[in-house]
Every structure is written in structure tokens, then in C-alpha cells.
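Chapter review: from sequence to fold.
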Amino acid sequence: MEDIIKILVVLLLEGAALLLILVGITLLYEVLRALGIKKLEYKRYFSEVGVFEGESLEMIEEVTNHAFFPMLRVDVESYVTSKIRMEGCEERNEVMQHFVSRFPVVMPFTTIRRKHPCKAEKRGYYRLESAKMMFADYDMFLQSEAELYIYPRELSLQEEETFHRYLQYNAASKLPIIADRFAFAGVREYRTTDALGAVNFKATAKYGQLMVNEPEYLMGRQVKIYVNFEPADGLDLNEFRERMERALNYVSHAFTKAFREGNRFGFGANCRTETGDYYSNVPLGTGFVHYTELLKELAKVQSYFGNSFVSVIDMDLYKSIRCAEVYLLTSYVDEGIENRIERLQQLGNTVRVVQV
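The C-alpha cell string follows.
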């Protein structure tokens, strides 16, 4: 009888020990599960700050495990605008895409980086703010900001030829858009597309590298383009917005050309923007930084008017804008706009009204 009691006691002790071990493992799992998700770091960003509409890029994700134990079955779920078309989405409609990244194992003190191909579908400024991370039945929302500027679409070859031909034969300044062989804006480094006849041998000897003459162009001085986002009476709004998008494509192309030729350029519009402003006015400037900031401004433009068109022009009139080639892209011209045209011309500017 005593032997049976001893056996029962041993079994009870072993069962209790096993139970304690199971309870300990369960508690440890719960602690590690709660601690583990806090030790996970997630961030995402795009491979480019901005791209032109229709171009491809990548969204890059990084998951880092700062814990001393591996994480199993880590999922990251987010919703991305359909204007940035992602490959491998769970669901997609005209507005949003349901995107899930699955990480089977994230080892201790390890960062996993993934690249997801995507395509810029529509001009605009897009900001991704949060994502939901799931690990071991725990959910946690993380701030994971990423932004992308999608610039206006680049022109096709036919559109580009039409645009250049239009400016060449209708420019108010009467200056040729083609290169002037007898007027030079300066010298610059040789490019593979330059003709050998453009080489400046004195500058080449001075700088120790091949230099060419930079000719004057139609946009070779100062170009300011204003766009009126207030439609004319009776104009269909959907059609007007399509015209505005096309106008922004031309504006972007004009500034790209001006930037490549080393000229000064600026932009003004009475539009609302993605950042809540009621107008956009980029002063005349040149260089890559100025060009990039202007493209970002074009990306943020919304096809709704905010302030009056003349108030945007007045901002530059107060600063006495001079000797610039001014283009007004508008669907109408009223007395107020005619008055601003006269004042711009009085300051030595050439003004051209382009009907949109």
C-alpha cells in the first residue's frame, strides 16, 4: 500500500511539474508575443522622390527584428491608393488597393528588405501614413510614412512637335524657338548629342574638358506661365479638367526644356493644392533644385480654382516682373485679365494668351 501511495505521489509531482512547465511555457509565450511585436520595426519608402506619370518605380519595405528570438509569420497590411499601381495586391478597386506583405521568419537582429514594383498611374501627391503589423495574433498599427510626387505625363513625340510648332509660329515675342547660331547664352560641357561644330575651343583649353557654345532659345531668358483654373461660363467641368491636365503636361514639358537649356522659369496658378493652399506661385529661377520643386508643385495641383486669376498675376506685378516671356493659359479673357496684360507689357514683358 505504501508503494502505491509513493507511486501516486511521484506521479502527482511529475504531473504538477509538467503542468508548471506548460504554464511557464504559456506565460513565456505570451510575454514574448507581447514583447516581440514591440521589438519589430517597419518602414517603407519609394525608390524615387518623384516620377512622371506612366513611369515605373519600386516601393521598398524594411522589417527589422530587434529581439533576441526569431519572429514567425509576420504580416504587414496596408491600403495604397490605386493611382500607384502595386503588383501582387490582395484586392483592388478604382480607389484603393489592399496590399499584404508576408514574412515567414524574421531572425534576431536582422533586417529584411523587399522591393515591390509599382507604376505611377495618375499625376498627384500621394502620402502613405500607417500600416497594420500582425504577429502571433497581435495587431499593431504603425506610423510608416512614405510620399511620392507623380509629375505630369511627358509628351509623346507628336505632341511635342505640335507644341514646339505652336510656340514657334505664334510666340508674341517673335523670338525663334530654334537655336540662334549667332547669339550665345554661354558655354557648357559637351554632350553626346552635340554637333562638333558647336565646340568652343578657347573654353575647352581653359577648362581642360570639351566645352560647347550654349545658343539662345525662345525660352532662353525668362519664362513665366500662368494657368487659370476657373472655367469659362457654360463649360463642362469634366471636359475642363481634362483640358487642365493636358495644359499641365505642356507646362511640365516647357519647364523641362527651359531647365535643360539653363534658362529661368516660373509658374503661377489660381488652383487649390494637395497641401491646402488656394494658389500656386513659383518665382523665376533656374537649376536642378528649382526644377524639382516646380515639378513637385505641379504634382500637388488640384483641378479646382481657389483665388482669382488676376490676384496671382498681381503677386508678380507687385514685384515688378520684367523682361519675361509670359504665357496665360486660360479659357476666357475678361476686363481684369486684359488690364493685367497691359501692365505686364508696360514692364517690358511679352505676353501671349493661350486658349485652353
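Two observations follow directly from the output. Confidence is low (pLDDT under 50) at residues 169-178. Residues 2-38 form the longest helix (37 residues).
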